Amino acid sequence: MDTVKKQRAGRKFTASEMGAIAHLYRGEIYRSTIWRTRLDTTTNWAVVTLGIALSIAFSSPNAAALPLVLVGILILFFLLLEARRYRYFNVWRARARWIETNLYVPMLTTGDLDMESGWNEVLADDYSRPEYHIGLATAIGRRIRRNYLWILLIQTVAYIGKLMVHPTAVTSLEEFIGRADIGPVPGEAVLGIGIVYVASWAAMAMWSAASDSAKFRQRGSASSSMG
Fold first, then answer.
1. pLDDT for 8-19, tens place per residue?
2. Is the pLDDT score of 87 beyond 80?
3. pLDDT digits (tens, 9 = 90+) for 45-61
4. Which of 37, 80, 223, 227 is 20 to 30 A away from residue 46, measured at CA?
5. Residue 224: inside a domain, yes or no?
6. How much is the pTM?
7. What are the two backbone dihedrals, phi and then psi, of residue 116, each rounded to the nearest 5 degrees?
8. How many domains does the chain have?
């Protein structure tokens, strides 16, 4: 087995193999671009939905704030859908980046390839047995950090503003809480759920940022995995 690995590490790509890898790289770039466009589409849906809810809630002083609450459910659905799409996008992006760092960078700097690290075997194994490179929680955290945290902040500020100014300016905390009532559900419960909702998103974003930072520090230049 060691002899086979040494032979693989010592071999050089032929001109036809290099051409095939170049076409493979172009294909991965194309697929990552397509899935990146799909990510932007999902974000646009969330932004448009929030815009509609804002228009309805602030259309008149007597309009209910309920649309701003319900839109949170839709935004959560869009977030989960986008996280799923991001996991696919990450596969194509990671493969393209892997080829760049292990093939093109050595060619441009030293003019030679380091086959002993086994990067080509890692890439071949990923094509033979493809799988997600990140978990769903990581994907959700990254999308919250990049886009959805800002959407959530706008939704939260708009909801609080609606309760404070419509139909008239709020004069006490009790009045503010009372305006948050939704049918039989008291305002205390609605606001409490909202706080948990916002805190959960913020916690997920911070956990994702810390996890990614630790992962990248640990990876360094001796990484043997993609993602």
1. 555 677 888 888
2. yes
3. 999 999 999 999 999 88
4. 227
5. no
6. 0.80
7. -70, -25
8. 1
